[in-house]
Amino acid sequence: MSIQTAVHQETISMNQGYQRTKRILDIIFTLLILIPLCIVIVIVAVFIRLDSAGPIFFRQKRVGQNGVEFNILKFRSMYVNSDDLRHREAITKYMNGQKLGESINGDLSYKVVDDPRVTRVGRLLRKTSPGNQD
Question: Rounded to whole angstroms, how far apart are CA atoms 79 and 59?
């Protein structure tokens, strides 16, 4: 016994006026956000340059969708050519099940507390970054 179903494909069409209006609003919103964002980026870049020697941005390779590598740029938060011995020791501790640090808001056992490799501006960046809330 086989069941057959009719293939029915329905297309969705959008009003051209809606698409045009949405595109205009997208561009206006982007321009409104872009100007203040550029000012913040310049201020942070100046503070990084004044705080320590080295480049403003840190380039890192990441693995993306389907295993494709890509480069990202981040503001540099550590001193250039820092000794990675402390990091290696922390990773060894973590792999052995020991906690590296604990936060008031929750368990962040993987965080190294008071890392001397982090610059003053880097500490501020890490505290205020949306992805690194302690």
Answer: 14
CA distances from 53 to 45, 46, 59, 78, 79 (A): 12, 12, 16, 10, 8
The domain spans of the chain are 17-80
Residue with tokens 């340059």: 49
Tens digits of residue pLDDT in 25-38: 999 999 999 999 99
**Range list of β-strands (E), 9-127:** 57-63, 69-75
Q: Record the tokens describing residue 97, joined without a space.
A: 């099940």
Tens of pLDDT, residues 60-91: 999 999 999 999 999 998 888 887 787 788 88
CA dihedral 89, 116, 40, 132 (to 10 degrees): 40
Around 84, how many Cα atoms within 13 Å sit in the side-chain half-sphere? 5
Q: Are 58 and 82 in contact (CB under 8 A)?
A: no
Cα 39 to its chain centre, rounded Å, is: 19
Whether the pTM exceeds 0.85: the reply is: no
In degrees rounded to 5, what are phi and psi of residue 94?
-65, -40
Which tokens belong to 86?
């402390």
Tell me the residue type at 91: I
